[in-house]
Design a protein that fits this description.
Length: 154
């Protein structure tokens, strides 16, 4: 698989994990015996996809990111690494924990216990919001590489 495909694969897993978390949120709004199976399956799917985003993104970070990091730091947008990548790699660990916790909460008594349903609603909502911040940070890092390459051409 080309290294560019590996780069593109990790946000793909991340976005799919967010979509599964939205699914959990919507099912939890009207949790019942009829949809609890779907809710729990979507929560497990979201957790698996978040771990895949971590493994593939981490692999890219360790093996390939060094060159782009040097480019960004020497380019017009050093903050794309100094702030966005640094924040992303630390914040992601919280997202990984939340994403892993989501199925644990979803296998609680979501249908009968209001407090458990609230826990699932908040956890799935935070997975989506933090996932979106990963996406945004990724866009800044990507642009940091692009403006550095463009600046080199001038
Ligand atoms: C919800 C999870 C995540 C999402 C949605 C996400 C999204 C993105 C996006 C959209 C980009 C720009 C891709 C491009 O250049 O075309 C990106 C870049 C990047 N991401 Fe992620 N990411 C996620 C998790 C991670 C994790 C866990 C790591 C590893 C620690 C990571 C490391 C990176 C790195 C190093 C880049 C810069 C690539 C480069 O230009 O060299 N990401 N991310």
């Amino acid at each position: 698989m080309s290294k560019e495909m590996i780069l593109m694969l990790h946000p793909t897993f991340g976005v799919l994990a967010m979509i599964a978390a939205v699914w959990v949120f919507v099912e939890a709004l009207n949790a019942s015996d009829a949809n609890i199976g779907r809710l729990r399956n979507a929560s497990v799917l979201s957790a698996i996809l978040i771990w895949l985003a971590y493994i593939v993104g981490g692999y890219w970070y360790v093996i390939y990111y060094g060159g782009d990091k040097a480019l960004i730091k020497a380019g017009p947008w050093p903050f794309a690494h100094g702030f966005f990548m640094e924040t992303k790699e630390h914040l992601f660990l919280m997202l990984l924990l939340l994403g892993t916790f989501l199925p644990i909460a979803a296998y609680g008594d979501v249908v009968k216990k209001k407090v458990t349903r609230k826990l699932v609603l908040w956890t799935s909502a935070l997975v989506v919001l933090m996932g979106l911040s990963m996406e945004g940070a990724g866009a800044f890092i990507n642009m940091g590489v692009k403006v550095a390459l463009l600046a080199k051409q001038l």
